[in-house]
Amino acid sequence: MISTLPNRKLPKNDETFSDRKQRIYDFLQAQPVGVLSTVGPDGDPHGVVIYYGVNKQLLISFLTRAETRKYDNIKHHNHVMLTVFEPHSQTTAQITGRAIEITDNYDINAVAATMLKASLKTSEAGTPPLAKLEAGAYVAFKIDPVQIRMAVYVRPDSGGHTELFETVESFELHDQGN
């Protein structure tokens, strides 16, 4: 069962971010690896490490294969969460949203190039693990975020809970005024 979320107007590429959105974008841009969580038809959670890309609209893109559990889960229930962690600053981001299949060949190739670049940046192996799987055709997705919540645990002293989090909700993600 694929649920739908309301369509939102996306910001133009030339719009400037608020300071909070810029910090979140910079963090996601610098950390191209995260754990994608999906839910299977039986309701069981499934998590897998992926390479991803992020654009100025804060849409997350990634590649998978058509014969994987991740793909089956997304086709069954397209609500997903991506969790990204950077140990040095103890910063974590959780992106909750809807996974939407990318069908344009040019866009699919752009996602594949982003994944290869991320793999080359972070791994001695170079080739992304996905390229080593024989699990059907490549399929690209984008995550349209409903919420992005970033916590910087190194920032406040103990007890400063409210200063930890920077959150952007769906109505803030794609608004026209920052």
Set down the secondary structure blueprint:
Elements: H1 19-30, E1 33-39, E2 45-51, E3 53-54, E4 60-65, H2 69-76, E5 79-86, E6 91-102, H3 105-122, E7 138-152, H4 161-164, E8 165-169, H5 170-173
Antiparallel strand pairs: 1-2, 1-5, 3-4, 4-7, 5-6, 6-7, 7-8
User: How would you characterize the largest beta sheet?
Assistant: 8 strands, antiparallel
Bin the strand percentage. 25-35%
Structural class designation:
alpha+beta
- In terms of quaternary structure, the protein is single chain
User: Can you write the helix and strand succession as a string?
Assistant: HEEEEHEEHEHEH
Helix content: 25-40%
Overall structural domain count: 1
CATH architectural name: Roll
Ranges where pLDDT stays below 50 over 5 or more residues in a row are: 1-14
The average pLDDT score comes to 80
> Got a strand count?
8
How many H/I helices?
5
Radius of gyration: 16 Å
End-to-end C-alpha gap: 35 Å
Query: Do you know the CATH topology?
Result: Pnp Oxidase, Chain A
CATH superfamily placement:
Electron Transport, Fmn-binding Protein, Chain A
Protein described:
About 30% of the residues are buried. The longest helix is centred in the middle third of the chain and has 18 residues, at about 105-120. The model is unreliable at about 1-15 (pLDDT under 50). With about 180 residues, this protein is an alpha+beta fold. Strands 1, 2, 3, 4, 5, 6, 7 and 8 form an 8-stranded antiparallel β-sheet that branches. The chain is built from 5 helices and 8 strands, in the order H-E-E-E-E-H-E-E-H-E-H-E-H. It has one domain (about 20-175): Electron Transport, Fmn-binding Protein, Chain A (Pnp Oxidase, Chain A).
